[in-house]
Write a structure and sequence with these properties.
2 helices, 8 strands
């Protein structure tokens, strides 16, 4: 049996940009991506703490140590610059393997940098 579970979580980062004219996705600082064990094009769920929006998109690598969190394309309409969001990815694995799995969770500071 396969189940879905939390793989990676970036807990409470601030949206720095919203670019409606881009094709789509979320741009995330490469340092945060690496720390959270996320890769480019990975599907993520974005949870906006300010307005309760929850939506899915995919990751684009942003400049390293820039603190960038940019919602692109249609997702730009779901957030405001300055909103605080949680970014989550999930994985599927065997039930027994899942019992031993530990997700990667990071808690950046208010400037979207690692503490």
């Amino acid at each position: 049996m396969q189940i879905e579970l939390l793989k990676s979580k970036i807990h409470q980062v601030t949206v720095t940009e919203a670019n409606l004219q881009y094709v789509g996705s979320i741009t995330i600082d490469e340092t945060l991506m690496n720390a959270a064990n996320l890769i480019e094009n990975e599907k993520v769920q974005v949870l906006d703490i300010n307005n309760g929006e929850r939506f899915e998109t995919y990751v684009i690598k942003g400049a390293k140590d820039s603190g960038v969190i940019c919602l692109n394309g249609p997702a730009a309409r779901r957030v405001q610059v300055g909103d605080v969001v949680v970014i989550i990815s999930y994985c599927s694995m065997d039930f027994e393997e899942a019992k031993k799995f530990k997700p990667t969770v990071i808690f950046p500071d208010k400037n979207n940098h690692l503490k």
